[in-house]
Amino acid sequence: MDAAMTPEARAELAGQIAADRRALAQALAAGRLVPFLDLDLTLHQLKVVLLVASGIATTGHELAGHLHVTAPTVSATVEKLVTLGYLRRDESGTDRRVKRLTATGRAARLHEAVAGLRDESDALLALLSPEDLAALARGTRALRDALATRDAPDGRTA
User: For the chain, what is the total number of helices (H) and then of strands (E)?
Assistant: First the structure.
């Protein structure tokens, strides 16, 4: 398409893209539910796993602050998550009284699934023709650039 595209044609293409994106998301939604269906965690426990696996919180004190709960509440939850194999306690290199929390492989896989870090649609890329793959790459880059422009403090690409 050239720069002389009419506003109507532009709006029609944008509408088509939005509809296709919604249809793709809906088609992939069932697969995104799988990690939750057999989950053996409460919502509170899931929050703790995600905070630790994402690196946002690595101590009980940090967890308590993020979750707005008391240290004993966090301690009991962490103990359960260690037992279930989601977290590990390690001694801090600087202060032996402080226990650093790290995510196990099980927690990392759960975090990847919840955060959408592994996307089933990635496998679909292999099914695209080289021309379609190149067009999608250009479009994806254009979306990233538009996001960077939108989010840049001065309105220019970061």
Answer: 7, 2
- Residue 48: pLDDT above 80? yes
Measured at the CA of 143, the angle between CA 140 and CA 145, to 5 degrees, comes to 110
Which residue in 37, 40, 59 sits closest to 48, CA to CA?
Answer: 59
Mean pLDDT of the chain: 88
State how far the Cα of 90 lies from the Cα of 71, in Å rounded to an integer.
18
pLDDT band at 2 (very low <50, low <70, confident <90, very high): low
CB 123 within 8 A of CB 34: no
Measured CA to CA, the distance from residue 71 to residue 61 in angstroms comes to 7
Total-model pTM: 0.62
- Read off φ and ψ for residue 85, nearest 5 degrees: 85, 20
d(CA 147, CA 130): 26
Cβ neighbours of residue 151 under 8 Å, at least 6 residues apart?
Answer: 158
Contact indicator for 81, 45 with CB cutoff of 8 Å: yes
Radius of gyration, alpha carbons of the chain: 22
Average pLDDT of the residues in 14-29? 89
